[in-house]
Design brief:
With 550 residues, this protein is α/β, with parallel strands linked by helices. The chain is built from 17 helices and 20 strands. Helix 1 runs parallel beside helix 14 and helix 9 packs antiparallel against helix 10. The structure holds flavin-adenine dinucleotide and NADP nicotinamide-adenine-dinucleotide phosphate.
Length: 550
């Protein structure tokens, strides 16, 4: 290490102690590097530390929604259900942190407010909310794609005297909802999981729906010891295969690589029925053109509409629950246990707030049109400022004081989802341009963490100090990400993938929609071409460039 680095407190700072942060902390330490983790929450697990709402579960099967990088972890941990509950996933995060002895590396209850690159020392100066700073060569943002809540600005919301909760900030001491009148605003994955769980407890539940979503049954159930033993026996191959699929997990036999048009109407129905019975969002891959061909999409959407009409007894309610404003897959498909069935309960009412919008909230009611709905509790299942919200909340400044949020004001992109020009040695795990939320996130996270260490190894190999992508590489990656998205129906929905859920946010499809296997291929191809798109240099040369620029 050069003398410029002598003032460093650590080799690396990792922001966030979700699964990405845990993997990074372990990986830095394994390589003999010093590392400081910083986490706003009081514990590990990220998403699963915060999301303690009733009904929370993963929608990727548990055996795949877990780490593959450490053979002992996957052999020692045993999932109990096909789709684990939030508490079980949180326990898994705690198991990982304890088993790998990571807790001592993390400063909990501490928020990173800024990260500023010092061109003279070549260090990232990371400012914390307790007024202290940490200096490190490498700064990794493992801050999560879905960790900054999106709260609606409804007139009068501050006057409400009852309780208001967001699923992503659910109180750790779960609130008593028994006997209460509760409104859930929002019918994305969080709302859809909450509704059946909350309906069982409360006196009355109002589900305020702006847009209906496509909901597929999880077909959840216990994992039997023989199933689990087989998975554990075949884990290495299973993990390898997961990177070779579009979604980041092994595909069931209900998935075909043929378009819907290659089947007769009866065969299509039979295949969709089998996919429905199999369960999960992989239903959207029953035919390989569901998310690219409007006709195929309609076939699958009509099938779901038929299911909704079959489950929901009141035909008028069923009609309102059928999506008409976006194609299947355009918004993240929801996976449920008993969502549509909940509307057959006498204590559950669907309130269509697209037809009759919310006017205001009073001290004890929500006014929808002329109607006042008296409630004790409001649950704002209104989602997240996804992918960029958490990064933009931190004052990140690179070379010449350039702010990341300014660089991203007309559209956000990171090269391979991981790095931005002018921000040397700063990494964004599952940043914009990554397959991230369109895949099993564990696979995205592990692949990104490996990429970070591939780049650091190359840095050392070249005797260089800093790595960053070129502007040209970023632009060409951005074009690739946009071209892939434009070839799908995903861009036609007002989804959070596009930032459409946050007023004023730039409309731009942020994730890489080509699938995990294709992303891995892209990365490998670029790295094999002498790390195409990356520049490796030393701090002094940047300081000289900086002086020349002035
Ligand atoms: P996170 O888990 O979001 O962790 C980021 C951490 O960074 C948080 O703890 C946060 O407090 C911390 N942080 C952020 N900013 C700062 C700051 N400035 N200073 C200090 N700390 C900070 N994905 C799937 O693939 N399958 C699923 O089934 C699935 N289910 C989900 C269910 C829910 C309810 C939600 C909200 C998301 C789900 N996801 C799912 C996506 C999920 O976010 C990822 O799977 C994964 O948990 C993300 O891990 P992470 O470490 O990248 O980020
Ligand atoms: P979301 O998908 O963005 O859904 C938010 C809901 O709130 C939508 O129905 C939206 O309606 C509504 N909404 C937003 N602002 C509103 C307003 N001002 N007035 C009325 N309604 C409003 O958020 P989410 O449900 O929290 O899910 C986010 C993501 O987290 C998911 O897509 C998924 O990736 C992940 N997640 C996964 C699971 C799981 O099953 N494992 C569970 C929860 C979350 P519009 O559609 O009209 O905008």
């Amino acid at each position: 290490m050069t003398s410029a680095y002598e003032t460093a407190d650590f080799d690396a700072v990792v922001v966030g102690a979700g699964f990405a942060g845990l993997h990074l902390l372990h990986s830095f330490r394994e390589r003999g590097m010093t590392v400081q983790g910083v986490e706003a929450g009081d514990g590990v697990g990220g998403t699963w530390y915060w999301n303690r709402y009733p009904g929370a579960r993963c929608d990727v099967e548990s055996v795949d929604y877990s780490f593959g990088f450490h053979p002992d972890l996957q052999q020692e941990w045993s999932w109990t259900e096909r789709y684990a509950t939030g508490p079980e996933i949180h326990r898994y995060a705690e198991f990982v942190a304890n088993r790998l002895n990571l807790r001592d590396l993390i400063r909990f209850r501490t928020r990173v407010e800024s990260a500023v690159f010092n061109e003279v020392s070549g260090l990232w100066v990371v400012g914390l909310d307790d007024g202290t700073e940490v200096r490190a060569r490498f700064c990794v943002m493992a801050t999560g794609c879905l960790s900054t809540t999106n709260l609606p600005d409804i007139e009068g919301i501050g006057d409400f005297t009852g309780d208001i909760y967001h699923p992503g900030r659910w109180p750790h001491e779960s609130p008593m909802l028994q006997g209460k009148r509760v409104a859930v605003i929002g019918t994305g994955s969080s709302g859809i999981q909450l509704v059946p769980a909350v309906a069982r407890e409360v006196a009355q539940l109002y589900v305020l729906q702006r847009s209906p979503n496509y909901v597929m049954p999880a077909q959840n159930g216990p994992l039997h010891p023989e199933q689990l033993a087989e998975v554990k026996r075949t884990y290495p191959e299973r993990r390898r295969m997961s990177r070779r699929t579009r979604r980041g997990f092994p595909l069931p036999t209900t998935v075909t690589n043929q378009p819907a048009s290659s089947f007769s109407a009866a065969e299509q129905h039979e295949r969709l029925e089998a996919a429905w019975a199999h369960g999960g969002a992989i239903f959207t891959s029953t035919f390989d053109d569901i998310t690219t061909n409007p006709d195929s999409n309609q076939v699958a959407a009509d099938f779901i509409a038929g299911k909704i009409r079959g489950i929901v007894k009141d035909p008028a309610v069923a009609t309102k629950l059928i999506p008409t404003d976006h194609p299947l897959g355009g918004k993240r498909p929801c996976v449920d246990t008993g969502y549509y069935e909940a509307f057959n309960r006498p204590n559950v009412e669907l309130v269509d707030i697209r037809e009759t919008p919310v006017q205001r909230i009073t001290s004890n009611a929500i006014q929808v049109g002329e109607r006042l709905i008296d409630v004790d509790v409001i649950i704002l299942a209104t989602g997240y400022d996804a992918i960029t919200g958490t990064l933009n909340a931190i004052d990140i400044r690179g070379r010449r004081g350039v702010k990341l949020r300014d660089e991203w004001c007309d559209g956000a992109m990171a090269y391979l989802g991981l790095m931005a020009p002018k921000f040397p040695n700063l990494f964004t795990i599952t940043g914009p341009g990554s397959p991230s939320v369109l895949c099993n996130m564990f696979v995205s996270i592990e692949q990104h963490v490996e990429l970070v260490f591939t780049l650091l190894a190359e840095l050392r190999q070249r005797g260089a100090e800093v790595v960053e992508p070129t502007q040209e590489a970023l632009e060409s990656w951005g074009e690739r990400v946009a071209d892939i998205a434009d070839s799908t129906l995903l861009v036609t929905a007002n989804s959070w993938y596009l930032g459409a859920n946050v007023p004023g946010k730039v409309r731009q499809f942020m994730p890489y929609a080509g699938g995990m296997a294709s992303f891995v291929d892209d990365c490998e191809a670029l790295l094999s071409m002498d790390f195409e798109g990356f520049t490796f240099g030393d701090v002094a040369s940047y300081s000289e460039q900086e002086a020349a620029a002035r």
